[in-house]
Records
---
Amino acid sequence: MIKAEHVSVGDELPPLTLRITRADLVKYAGASGDFNPIHWNERFATQVGLPGVIAHGMLTMGMAIRVVTDWTGDPGAVVEYGVRFGRPVPVPDNDEGALVEVTGKVTKALEDGTFKVNITATYDGKSVLGGASARVRLP
């Protein structure tokens, strides 16, 4: 577990590569109740102008915060987290799935003893989450 005294503004978190598969979409749909056909029906997704079946935005968001929780060693260290959904993540119908690259950087030490971490998540070299940041409290 990382300690506050070992953190400085500018520190970069270890990068994380996430694999999102169609099986992940099925599991997330079942857990969330979001059965929108854009997340499972290729024909429907392309008919509405998408490049194919896409990952749930909240699934992408939930997986991306792992860059921070893996770094802190404690999911409870995250006291605030927010994103804007920028681009969809198309999930091909194969065993590879979609690879999302996630990085983080400490950008502020706040007066309340927490740190702000900006998060970047990209698919195919393009950002998929805009304005993603977390505030963490470290021991």
---
Amino acid sequence: MPGFDFRLRVFYEVSTRLSFTKAASRLNITQPAVSKHIQEMEHQLNVRLFSRNGNNIKLTPAGEIVHSYAAKIITAYSNLESELSQLSDISEGIIHIGASTTVAQTVLPKILALLKKNHPKINFTFVQGNTDFITQQVINETIDVAIVEGIKHNPQISYTPFLKDEIVLVTSSKTKLAKRGEIKASELYDIPLVMREAGAGTLEVILEALRAAGIAPAQLDIEIELESTIAIKQYLLYSEAASFLSVQSITNELKYQQLAIVDIEGLQILRDFQCIQLHGNTSKLISFFKRFCLSNHN
């Protein structure tokens, strides 16, 4: 029964976290709704699932048994959906897709073109913006699925790893910095830098890596902040500045020797591009799109 399926999911979230509040946040429903589902389940099974001591809860012996079976049922159900989805012939439909700026400009254009070529009856809308904006659109349910960069994790969002990426320090191939080829991390303080705007996932990853390397971002010489990778690359071509960019975004500029990578001793910035969707917002078309991205990103 569908109602019992969801109650089982609610119970599993509460029993795993031993918190009605955390379960409500995870499932994107209210805490009273969580309590109601648990009460209905206890009534249906005719057992108490939790014992309460003030604000703390713990599983009863019956709750321990139900938790064990719930974990197995939910895993089996997820595997069932996945296998059935793979057998499905997704031939038409509409899907609302989003992507953070770097992904939108580098990885997704090819994937979207191949999707339209191979599945012409699948229609899609596409929105791009920084990671914060795209994540909010997923939460608002104006986007079904998106690919973003960044290190923030919203409890309302389900994250699936998509593609590994490296962020490198880049400058015009004509600069003195380019001719050096490698610098020490401490020398970053002496280099004028072009950075992405606040809210960009790339910026979050960069700042986190710099702090881990002992570099204070507030003391860097930020020459200008720009909103897109394309704008940054154009700026670099006519300046002495440098910037941190995804290696995915500079393949042509490296090929034609317009930009050059400057290695930083002891510093490597790696990150994951991730598929995101709202918890509970699943469909055969969303699952198909995620598999299509994984199969066609190279």
---
Amino acid sequence: MQDIEILERKTLAENAYRLELITINQIKKGKTERHDREVYFRPNGATILLIDFDRKTVLLTKQFRLPVFLHGEKDQLLESCAGIIDEGELPEHAIIREVEEETGYRISEISPVAQGFMTPASVTEYVYFFTGKYSPEMKVSEGGGEESEGEDISLVELSGREARELLLSGKLRDVKTILLLQHAIIQNLI
């Protein structure tokens, strides 16, 4: 383990979440290096690939994402259902809540896949990955996300074949969705 000394912390912004400039001394191979790092303190999240195991379909969400647009992508982002874990909430409970908010499906059967940092160089968020069972009879509401949060989410149901083709074509741009679809293919879930 490298020796780290935090020299200074400066809040650059504190709107939805805090962005800090942190100055550190890092001792590597006996030499001290000084670095400035911007760190975005974002809550942990959870994501899930919804699978209808009988019909061999997956359910994805599609919505506008400003950073994606700013990167030059004009289409809405196709992605697995995801959301922030509220303080004191378990990842499993958070993703079940998010599924109902975003898709309108009330699910109960989920399985953990993986967990980890998505952008460890600059964002504190830790993400929990799941697969979960859905079927048409589990639809209990319209879904679409939380209007108060500016969400306008549509659903895209794909056959396993369509999902594989989309993955292999390189057209998917969301890493969490790529990871979950790869898992589903490797495990023969779709």
